[in-house]
Amino acid sequence: MSARSRGLTLRGLWERRGLSLAVLVVTVVSVATSALGPIFAEAAGTALVRGVLNQAAPEGRGWRITARDADVSPLADRFRSGAAFLGTPVNGAELPGRDPRGGVVRPVIYQDDVCAHLVLVKGRCPANGGEVIASQASRLDAGKVVRVAGLAVAPAPGEVIAARAELAPLRVVGVYRPRDINDPYWFGGNLFAQTAGSSESKADPLFTVEETRRATQATVQWTHWSIVSIDPTKITAADLPRLEELTAAAPRLGLAQAPVITLSRVPDTMLEVRAQTGTLGVPALLVIAQLVALGWLLLYLTVSDLVAARAPEIALARLRGQGRLRVWRFALAEPVLLLALALAAGLALGMRLAQVVAAALLPGQVALALPPAGVLAGAAVPLGGLVAAVIAARGMAVRPVTEEWRRTPRRRARGWVIDAIVLSLTALGLVELLAAGVITQTSGQTSAALAVPGLLALGVALLACRVVPFLAGRLFRASRRAGGIGAFLALRQIARGRATAGSLIVLCTAFGMAVFATAAWDVTSANFERVARVHNGAAGVLELRAGSVAELRAAVEAADPGGRHAAPVIVMPGPPKMIATDPARFAHVADWAAARPGTDAARLTAGLAGPPGTPRLMVRGERIRLRIGPVKVPDKWEPTLFADFRVPGSTLVKSIPLGPIGPATMEWGLPPECRAATCELRALRAEVTVLDEVTTNASMFADVKRIEVRTGGRWREIDAGLTDRARWSGTASAGEDGLSLMIPLFGGAKAVPATFPRHLPALVNGPIDGELTPGLDQNFAAGHAVLGERAPLPGLSEPGAIVDLELADRAALGIAPEARFEVWVAAGRLEQVAAALKAQGHPVSPARTPDQLVSRYTTQGPGLALALMLAAALAAGALALGRAVLALYGAARRRGYELAALAATGAKPGELRAALLLEQLITLAAGTLNGAGAGLLAARVALPRVPEFATAPSTPPLLYEPSLGPVALVAGAALVVAFAAVALTAEALLRGIRADRLRQAQP
Amino acid sequence: MTAAVRCDGVVQIYKTRDLEIVALRDVDLVIAQGETVALLGPSGAGKSTLMWLMAGLLRPSAGRLRINGTDVSRLSPGALDRMRAADIGVVLQNPGRNLIPYATAAQNVAFAQRAARTDRRRAAALLDRVGLGGMRRRAGAMSGGEQQRLAVAVALANAPRLLLADEPTSQLDDDSGRAVIGLIEQAAEENGTTVVVVTHDAAVSRALGRTITIRDGKVGAEGRHGEEFVVVGREGGVQLPPEFHELLPPGSMARVEALPDGVALRRAES
Question: Is Cell membrane set as a keyword in this record (chain A) (predicted)?
Answer without folding.
Answer: yes
